[in-house]
């Protein structure tokens, strides 16, 4: 089943707003077997909206619009589309009452402009919006089907999930496009590709994409135009085959955060964690504490940016720093040991490096980061040179610090 | 001058990729007086590309395409558009040589599929791409103008800036759409709006938009369809008038980061900074150390997630925690004082709170955060209840912590 999207809003054309709805709709519709064949973005003027919707209906007879439903712009897009169906408007008391009630709960009163939101074309089905003020609308008649959704991403998403997707899935009932991602870290894309080269020839009908990012490379398997059960099974089986080859660098699936995986792994093992951070400046701690429930594991960390702070807070010997330099495996180890002792934890990480843009030397170029990890009786050290700008070096270093500790926790 | 965009790529329709190019093009083109009247997104198949470009040319005679220029998909979109002009292809030795050289620098050799990138329609102008492998193309003839740019955002941006914008600006030479943003924090949108109510009636022909985000509300002034000098002058003058009313909560303009403003303000004053963080878990430190050159100001911080850590690292009295609770202005103050003493700094911030989702009580609901700030002889405390989920509470708390210190540094 083919569908076209018409996104409405001057702010989209002017670039004040990035259209994230388009990608979200594409994925959600593909997953229920609806293929988006074209997306057209137009401004708020009636003639542009009318032309775009009319042309799209002629091509696919199934159109989904986003935006143009706010209280101030409401009338335009609704009116234009009602005209395509030859329908006039009717005031819905129940929509108005829900609106008044919603405003009352927020301690406000609806403005006169809000009344238009309760005006509905006579033949349209109202898609009740419990997450905002503008209801969605479903037009079905001689020109085809037009589904109007609000442009606010949160409201669009909820209406799509609860009102639109079930109705469309019932009609589509065919092949779907589904994907599954395995998240890897600490391995370059080219090395991953080499390790997976033999397997890649046998993946059909699935495709495999490498998606490199600052936190690692995601492997995306996609099943194209298969029945939903077959697609799910194939993705599961093939993901297991990939894991058999590169499982050592896979930390999770489908958007999971590495810090969340580490926190739950340490929690299962009743292991507490502390940090001694220099160049990451609190970023590793911020990653860990972003996870709800991390307080069961994380005791704290010392962010020792200056050399004095390394000595004062974590007892790193000033002589050691003077002899081997602040960016060295020895100081990383001293940071980790100091943190473990101060915070009394079972696991600890020490990180020290040069994030740039200044501070590099021939021996220790910008991007050089030294790590130490302690977990139970294990002790590991590493030195890496990460590519990228200051932000990327820090992100990569934080990710690497967390990933190596996870691998230690899993193999211990 | 009106222009239509045609974005090419199955991944855009399937939602694997969010189209950020569209917004970027919209802003950049508006700033040189080119109005984007429609954006059409199509897949990689020739008939869809041809139809979209042909229709767009008929409407505006000026079309910019993005995507569909990679080595594997090159031929399709280039061929389709060359056909609209009735042009055949010619192999360009110089493009090929640059390509071979580029691959050589990366230690690789071009694949056979790369040869197609050196094939150019005979009438097209090549827009040299120094940032990637696929050159841009400028078609100009009877059907109108088609500008083809690669879809990779970094390459698109560079070609737009260096090759396309200057050519288009020379032709447009008319009214532009420009905007300027003032960034505020620590004030709700409704309070801002009340303070600016009188001024708002006098802003025409500029418009004022309130853009609330987790780090504060940005005020965007936009000049619509004015000559470029007039637009710039009006924006400057009006921004100054806004500052006269709400300058106390404005920390910067046009996307500047609050932490960067604070770091340079402290640096000017030769003031060093340390942190005692609990609920933000390192986030304040990560914000500060994200700024290049922050090491001149930032000495370090203690992330004291557990109560024991507060006592062990920053000397917060265990009795105090037992009597008033870890989330209290008293403990925030003890964290700040402990940090200032440990790190020997002139300024310090203490933050302790309940980020959620658990841990709230009637007295101290989720979102409660207590702060203390020390700067020279100034000492301030505050307690706030921030709305939102765990991530938002932490982001808001970190922003508030930085903003209040900046205001102290500016008024001291």
Write structural notes for this entry.
The structure is a homodimer of 412-residue chains. Chain A is of the alpha/beta class. In chain A, 43% of the residues lie in helices and 26% in strands. Chain A is built from 14 helices and 17 strands. The first copy, chain A, has helices spanning 10-14, 20-30, 46-60, 74-85, 93-105, 153-172, 189-200, 228-246, 258-268, 283-289, 307-314, 318-324, 329-343, 390-411, and strands at residues 2-8, 35-42, 62-66, 89-91, 119-121, 125-127, 136-141, 144-149, 176-184, 206-213, 216-226, 250-253, 273-277, 298-304, 347-353, 368-375, 378-385. In chain A, the strands form 4 sheets. A 6-stranded mixed beta sheet of chain A has the order 2-1-3-8-7-6, with helices on both faces. In chain A, strands 14-13-15-16-17 form a 5-stranded mixed beta sheet. In chain A, strands 10-11-9-12 form a 4-stranded antiparallel beta sheet. In chain A, strand 16 and strand 17 (378-385) form a beta hairpin.
Instruction: Write down how many β-strands of chain A occur, each being a DSSP E stretch of 2 or more residues.
Output: 17
* Structure classification of chain A: alpha/beta
* Contiguous runs where pLDDT drops below 50 for at least 5 residues of chain A: none
Report the radius of gyration of chain A as a whole number of Å.
28 Å
CATH fold type of the largest domain in chain A: Molybdenum Cofactor Biosythetic Enzyme, Chain A
Proportion of strand residues of chain A: 25-35%
Number of helices of chain A: 14
What is the residue-mean pLDDT of chain A, rounded to a whole number?
Answer: 92
Helical proportion of chain A? 40-55%
